[in-house]
Amino acid sequence: MFALFLAAAVAAAAPVPAETPLPPPDQLLVAIRAKFRSHRPPPAYVVYTIERKQLTDQGYPDYAESYKEHVWVRSVDRAAMARRVYRSINRGAMTFERPAFNEARDPGPPTADIFEPAPAHPHPISFVPTPEATDSPLPTIGVVTVNAAFDYRVVSVDVQGDQVHLVVAPKRDPDRNRLREIWADKRTLELRKLVATDKLFILGTSDVYGVTFTITMGNLQGVPIVTDIHGVVGDGYSGDGSTVDYSFRDISFPPALPDWYFDSREYAQHESEEPL
User: What are the angstrom distances between the C-alpha of 212 and each of 232, 242, 243?
Assistant: First the structure.
């Protein structure tokens, strides 16, 4: 009995390990981005289903602009083939797409670099983005501390449960540097949620409205992925689609896909090989 009491007393007297303090705000932002970028570039191919839901200006479901698409993406140039999903099993015609944030098309892919600046001007679907770097890091000759997140300043930092929350503001080009809030795991610094700006392009017109995206992040096979987006359109917009939701589901990283998936001129020759 005495031995048990002594052991309990020793255990009770043992010091509780102190939590590792967070680095200064700017260094914390650098560390969060470095953690995300440590998984770059993304897998060579990404397959997923995107579901888009929006409301009418009266607040009812807008079935005309709510849909599902199955998408096959080649990461090196973000070329993609897409097919609409009807009644869960039927598929529409094969179409060529290039998913991207801040463009006149659906956001994506779920492996997109959320720290990447938005384009200065809208790009046509034929535009081919510069591939992400795949080279190994250069040899380290010396140690230099650099604030790599120079495009943002950290306005505030607070801890919310097991997550750290940063409010950030762009130092320049607010239309391009679109992050506004960041939530990350306090221990691992893996991204959990973001608030970012985006744009709504009214097709057939020159009208463009600002959008606030709340982006939920996840992780698949060690790769950070976007799982859900909730968008609210601002700038006085009052038409259909003033709120819109995107869900990325059935995400996978196949080791290879046929080249013809990413060349719309070959679709007609491969109708018998259409993927489901």
Answer: 5, 11, 10
Cα 7 from Cα 25, distance rounded (Å): 42
Interatomic CA distance for residues 156 and 96, integer angstroms:
42
- Beta-strand pair 243-252/79-86: unpaired
Provide the whole-model pTM: 0.85
Picking from 257, 251, 243, the residue whose alpha carbon sits closest to that of residue 110 is: 251
pLDDT per residue of the chain (276 residues) written in tens, 0 to 9:
545 555 555 555 556 555 678 889 999 999 999 999 999 999 999 999 999 998 888 888 888 889 999 999 999 999 999 999 987 666 899 999 999 998 888 999 999 999 999 888 888 887 888 888 655 444 544 444 444 457 999 999 999 999 999 999 999 999 999 999 999 999 999 999 999 999 988 877 788 899 999 999 999 999 999 999 999 999 888 888 889 999 999 999 999 999 999 999 999 999 999 998
